[in-house]
Specification:
The protein is of the alpha+beta class and 512 residues long. It is 21% helix and 30% strand. The protein contains twelve helices and 34 strands. Strands 3, 4, 7, 12, 18, 19, 20, 21 and 22 form a nine-stranded antiparallel beta sheet that branches. The chain has a six-stranded mixed beta sheet with strand order 25-24-13-16-27-26. Strand 29 (391-392), helix 9 and strand 30 (411-415) form a beta-alpha-beta unit. Helix 3 (35-41) packs across helix 5.
């Protein structure tokens, strides 16, 4: 039976006899020696991850200007930071986007620019008071001009990430990057066998007060992260460190097209191998780490799980979904995760990093609940019109024009003989066809890739579809693809007006 203490291992670090391996190396050692002999052989296992961690940011203290200002709103390179924490402190979040550069530049980029010691433009406004008379200020600073720059990340190092894919016929832009239509790809995050929290899933050595590697500098775990849910392998940690000591190599601002900004964070945790049980857990392999493949085409809180998959399969570059081979790609950098783990290993071997005993264990029984919503979300079936006109496949443009003239709708779903939706034609399509002298069948004029809604779809999801695709109406279909109603932007506007106690007047111009 092997029993060691953190103090025993720290003494080995001091006298230079400590044996440190990375989590990747430990897998082979445990496999070859078994947990008991591995625990005798190895003192510390270093882990590492380098991925997009949106729940990151930094507290900044600017010092007082003369005359002084109590900054109510403050921007760094046109990215707004939260200023509701006294006069000259602010918290800049990684995902806040630039007011002038949009989604391509955000808080994560500002943090990277500060660590790179680049000049950052500061702009702040205030109402002015007797003790803080100044109402606005603009200046240029670098991180060296700040009194304090403290990274504090509420949720980092997710134990497990779901895999994202897309079964729809349209490209999706998400925090899991671009998802191609019809299972065109699958993206995943996390470092697999190097993942810090997978190497100590019961938090025997990781806890509040644990010293860690954070973006090239020493950092600390200050508690459970937000959305901490270890019962479903979704544990997280809250971490902090001195931004001024960090290395840009292990911290990068980034933007996902169509989604927004984030911050790539390099984070590593040393696991002291105190006994054979801990040795066994650090011997985990990519084949042992299982996660879910989710269909992100469903814009709901609970997305359909398509299958379970191991990190070994994900790292092979291909998984099978619905009988189709789908390419996989990581959002995390395995190269940088290895670099984090090996750098931390080197620090410990050189005696530059001592292990710390946690002050308190992280909880292992918490669950993450959904938001309590006191107002019921209206669904499509509550708002849509069931009285709609459709037109059969094979009819002419002239037939469609007559139906539109007879009815009130400017949109006609085109259906097959068995009532399935196969296209849509609008008043605009007809006008264009007439202008071009095309009076033949609808097949050459109608839109075939129709955006649709379903009965139980929340109105917010439908409104997003209308806005994204710049259209004003959607056919509502059932599970068999048959048209059962229509919902328009006017229907949604009437609902909003009714809620706000206002009257509604339909716009004169119709979108396509």
């Amino acid at each position: 039976m092997v029993e060691k203490t953190v103090q025993d291992i720290n003494q080995k670090i001091k006298d230079g006899s400590v044996h440190v391996v990375t989590a990747e190396q430990m897998t082979d050692i445990v496999d070859e020696l078994g947990p008991e002999d591995a625990a005798r052989e190895v003192d510390v296992v270093t882990t590492g991850t380098f991925g997009a961690m949106c729940s990151s940011g930094a507290f900044l203290n600017f010092g007082h200007s003369d005359p002084p200002i109590k900054m109510q709103r403050v921007w760094l390179n046109d990215v707004e930071a939260y200023g509701g924490i006294a006069a000259v402190d602010a918290y800049i979040g990684a995902t806040q986007i630039s007011e002038s550069r949009g989604m391509e530049y955000g808080g994560g980029h500002v943090i990277e620019d500060l660590v790179a010691r680049k000049s950052v433009h500061i702009r702040a406004v205030a109402d002015g008071t007797d003790c803080y008379p100044r109402k606005n200020i603009e200046t240029e600073i670098t991180i060296d001009d700040l009194n304090q720059a403290i990274m504090l990340n509420p949720r980092n190092a997710y134990q497990r990430y779901n895999v994202a894919t897309n079964s729809s016929d349209r490209t999706l832009y998400t925090y899991m990057d671009t998802l191609l239509p019809n299972y065109g790809n699958a993206t995943y995050s996390g470092a697999g066998v190097l993942s810090p929290l997978y190497n100590d899933p019961d938090f025997e050595t990781i806890g509040t007060g644990s010293k860690i590697f954070l973006c090239g500098a020493p950092g600390y775990i200050i508690g459970e992260g937000t959305q901490h849910e270890p019962q479903n392998d979704l544990a997280t940690i809250m971490v902090t460190g001195n931004l001024k000591e960090m290395n840009r190599e292990f911290l990068r601002g980034a933007a996902f097209h169509g989604y927004g900004a984030t911050l790539y964070v390099g984070l590593g945790i040393p696991i002291p191998v105190l006994n054979e049980n801990i040795a066994k857990k650090t011997g985990i392999s990519d084949a042992d780490i299982i996660t879910n493949v989710l269909d992100y085409s469903s814009p709901r809180r609970l997305r359909p799980t398509l299958r379970k998959v191991s990190y070994e399969e994900l790292k092979s570059g291909m998984i099978e979904l619905d009988g189709k081979e789908v390419r996989t790609s990581p959002l995390s950098s395995f190269f940088m995760a290895r670099k984090v783990a090996s750098t931390l290993k080197h620090w410990i071997e050189q005696g530059n990093f001592m292990l710390s005993q946690p002050m308190e264990k992280l909880p292992t029984d918490t669950l993450f609940g959904p938001m309590k919503q006191t107002k019921e979300t209206p669904l499509v079936k509550d708002v849509m019109s069931r009285k709609m006109i459709t037109i059969r496949q094979g009819k002419s443009v002239e037939d469609a024009a007559k139906l539109i003239m007879k009815g009130q709708s400017t949109h006609l779903p085109v259906t097959s003989e068995d009532d399935r939706l196969i296209g849509i034609i609008t008043a605009w399509d007809i006008s264009k066809a007439v202008a071009q002298g095309k009076y033949d069948k609808l097949d050459r004029t109608m839109t075939r890739r129709v955006i649709t809604a379903t009965l139980d779809e929340p109105i917010d999801v439908t409104a997003r579809k209308l806005e994204k695709h710049n259209i004003s109406a959607l056919p509502v279909i059932d599970k068999d693809g048959k048209v059962i109603g229509m919902i328009t932007s006017d229907d949604i506007s009437r609902l909003i007006a009714k809620r706000n106690g206002c009257s509604f007047q339909a716009p004169l111009e119709e979108k396509r």
